[in-house]
Amino acid sequence: MNRLYLYDTTLRDGSQAEGISLSVDDKLRIASKLDDLGIPFIEGGWPGANPKDDAFFARLGELQLRHSEVVAFCSTRRSGMSAKADLGLQKVLEANTRWITTFGKSWDLHVHESLRTSLEENLAMIADTIHFFREAGRRVIFDCEHFFDGYHKNPEYALATVQTAAEAGAEWVVLCDTNGGMLPHQIQAVVETVQKFCKEKALTCGLGIHTHNDSETAVANALAAVMQGVLMIHGTVNGYGERCGNANLCALIPNLQLKMGFELLSSEQLANLTATSHFVSEVANLAPNEHAAYVGLSAFAHKGGIHVSAVRRNPQTYEHIVPESVGNSRRIVISEQAGASNILQKLADFGLYFERTDPRLQEILVRLKQLESQGYQFEAADASFELLVRESLGERKLYFSLEGLYTSCQTFPDQSVRSEATVRVRVGDKLQHTAAEGNGPVSALDSALRKALTDFYPQVAHMHLADYKVRILDGTTGTSALTRVLIEFSNGLKRWTTIGVSPNIIEASTRAIVDGLEYGLMSSGMHPTEKCLREILHQN
Amino acid sequence: MNRLYLYDTTLRDGSQAEGISLSVDDKLRIASKLDDLGIPFIEGGWPGANPKDDAFFARLGELQLRHSEVVAFCSTRRSGMSAKADLGLQKVLEANTRWITTFGKSWDLHVHESLRTSLEENLAMIADTIHFFREAGRRVIFDCEHFFDGYHKNPEYALATVQTAAEAGAEWVVLCDTNGGMLPHQIQAVVETVQKFCKEKALTCGLGIHTHNDSETAVANALAAVMQGVLMIHGTVNGYGERCGNANLCALIPNLQLKMGFELLSSEQLANLTATSHFVSEVANLAPNEHAAYVGLSAFAHKGGIHVSAVRRNPQTYEHIVPESVGNSRRIVISEQAGASNILQKLADFGLYFERTDPRLQEILVRLKQLESQGYQFEAADASFELLVRESLGERKLYFSLEGLYTSCQTFPDQSVRSEATVRVRVGDKLQHTAAEGNGPVSALDSALRKALTDFYPQVAHMHLADYKVRILDGTTGTSALTRVLIEFSNGLKRWTTIGVSPNIIEASTRAIVDGLEYGLMSSGMHPTEKCLREILHQN
């Protein structure tokens, strides 16, 4: 069986989705997760198109990618100039990627209506651009934009773009259903013809497929192409993308690997699929789709007694795959066993190795379920999770305790706003009572807390809030529902994320801040009591 | 071309979805909408299974259905008794429907593991049940539960259940992928064999298909069956259903009608598809999926200037169907790349028609860019955008002005937290000074503001915050950076979204709340000054 290549475009096509706006840090974090997952190609963005994409490529070196190639994306050269003269293409070279994906029009209508140029010039734009990148020593993927619509209207021209790209040196030619309107049987028929054409013309490029979900068949369309021998599959995590989204890798990967027998990821990587899906939705600040195939919270949820007992006797009766194979778990109200493998995996990440039968594992699971039922979700909050684990193990160190807080926010006649906070914090024997101002109540709280701690733990001066995200857990009752706050901290060397949940946004934020400062102290190797005692002795 | 029959199971299978709980009234309202849409079969529920389903069938006469048959659903008779002796089946007859769908096992594993009976007895249960209903003068549809899994393990037995049902008098035999694990090519191959089998055995039943979305291919699986000549298609509105849901009729119908040439609905009915989808999600109290194919808010959304001007010149360039054919519409998204074409289109949505050369258009663009550079993003905040436009045109009405606010949040020794807010609001000549508590400072603010306004604008009592999202705009400086708040409001009939940006989360939230209440008042057609004046005169 031929090797299939996954090509992720979450950072480029995915970030076109309405409601998604990724910072450079977000993009780097997602790239790193995709690398862990084992995706061979990651489309990173369009160098030169905006400062964010430039910064992303400039900072790529910070990541130590082991499995993935990050690919730069761009259009073919502009009409009526040479590739060399097009400064946009220079910018792409400067991103210094080994692979470049360039896209061009395969639909005559678009050549006329969007590019407003001739059919010949469009072919020349494709050939010149690919030659230009090849001569600079780069490997090239060519995206045939609007290929299927183009093929239906003018098959000869659509095929001419494939031939032009392949002959100019593109190693992959990707057939794109840009408008997302195709159905699987249409994809299948067209791909079959393209395969024949490539054989006839002795083109050596591999074929790829890029589908959108406007007919709710993006995943099936990609599979139909694979059934016809296509070997590169484009998609995004959670199917994020413009309009109705792109083909969803979180469904495609298990369909291909578990049902069609392709080896794409190691079984350990595949078991990270659910966590990766949730991580990306957290970073994008979108509620995860609970009904998502394979990775959704409800994907393996069982209701009803007969159902549940049948599934317990023989899971095959009501489950199409083993949930753990994609890192999900069966969800039956009373099942405490669900999720044990995830936890074991997670603990191993902290350097804690347990037997599956260790009673402490059960304790952690019970505590975790309890918190999850209160709206906590630890996929994107590793620091809070580690604190929870250490607490269950009796290993959590008490650096300080927050005994009370007061925050206020007030407007003044000159239209200014002022926020301040006071906190009462116990460190060892000493009660600190401090106040601080901030841009808002949360930053005032953070300042007041750090002011209270800095005498004891000078490290807190280096910690700061790097990101702050809020989501309401039940969208039907608005601000009266539970508020979940995720806070990312940084000390300049390391980043960590904590979570707080409460009906009150201030309380939720406070919990996440307290966890964040505590985790920062713990991971800097500080021992609390001695230091506290020493400081206290010193001060008195 | 043979006629296809749509079969909706939103009220039965759809209501199994986690998070959905429909009252009898809800079910009746949905049935009535499905009738308007022109769905031939509506599966109403299982008479005798619960009081809600009984009440639904008892009250069916209240509806004057013109296009739909409401079908009762039930399992085959119990093992080891006659059909007549099974009181459950009597209950089903009492629902008095012309059509009854009964389901039985087609997978030998389930016969053994779930029913715990013999393969022969299961066939007898199928035959007896169908005979029983036929003798009572009812028309019968038979659902082959787990047909595809069953066929893969024991094809002879799975086919025997089809033959038994057809020979007992079922007019339709529906092949169900109950666990949702099949892929389109597998469905296609199995259905082909079943068709051959039916021909060989001279079975006269029609074949149906019932798919689930556990592989994210439910729609494509149903289409694959149709490609093989299946004539009845089961699905639910919005794909609601257990686990990952059922095949989504809102995608299936336009795929079949607009792309495969089947005549299912009149064009007027098809143009009600988007409204029906939104209606069902409102009744189910679930946020509509904005990225849904055909009916989602984003399904025909366009960003970016070149894109927008191309779609205006020729919509076919970027749209796979005419949005209005399914009752949706093109939506020009306002984003950083906004050019004049986007704005013009957007203004037209508000009923404001401008020439491209109108100087007011320039003013709006300038103001928009200014706000965007301050972190505003209007793509998800249509209501704030409309207010901005009306302000630029000098058409914004002043319903009230917030002159001051104070919020506080405090913890108490018993670990409780309390938030309260006071606001000073001017309405016309009158200064209202109110205070309220809330779960957090934002909900306290919202309550205090609405308390201040309710004497003047009783409509505010119906408005509530439906969702609240916060994002820090510059991820590197945390809570000291800009905070962007998006708030979704609802008045039970309509939803609208506003935005607020400020370094202070309370100020940002306040701006979004003020916009939201103002927009709610404006869109309810209220005139501010007169009403204010009248109230003020009345009160003094």
What's a quick, concise take on this entry?
The structure is a homodimer of 540-residue chains. By secondary structure, chain A is α/β, with parallel strands linked by helices.
Overall pLDDT metric of chain A: 89
CATH superfamily of the largest domain in chain A: Aldolase class I
CATH topology of the largest domain in chain A: TIM Barrel
User: Strand sequence of the main sheet of chain A, in spatial order?
Assistant: 1-2-3-4-5-6-7-8
Strand content of chain A: 15-25%
Radius of gyration of chain A: 27 Å
Which shape of chain A, going by the Cα principal axes?
Answer: globular
Q: Give me the CATH architecture of the largest domain in chain A, please.
A: Alpha-Beta Barrel
Through-space gap between termini of chain A: 75 Å
**Which structural category do the helix and sheet elements of chain A fall into?**
alpha/beta
Major beta sheet summary of chain A: 8 strands, parallel, barrel
Uncertain ranges of chain A = 333-338, 475-479, 533-540
Number of helices of chain A: 19
State the CATH class of the largest domain in chain A. Answer: Alpha Beta
- Name the helicity range of chain A: 40-55%
Tell me the number of strands of chain A: 14
Subunit organisation of the chains: homodimer
Name the largest protein-protein interface in this structure.
A-B, 106 and 107 residues
Count of distinct structural domains of chain A? 3
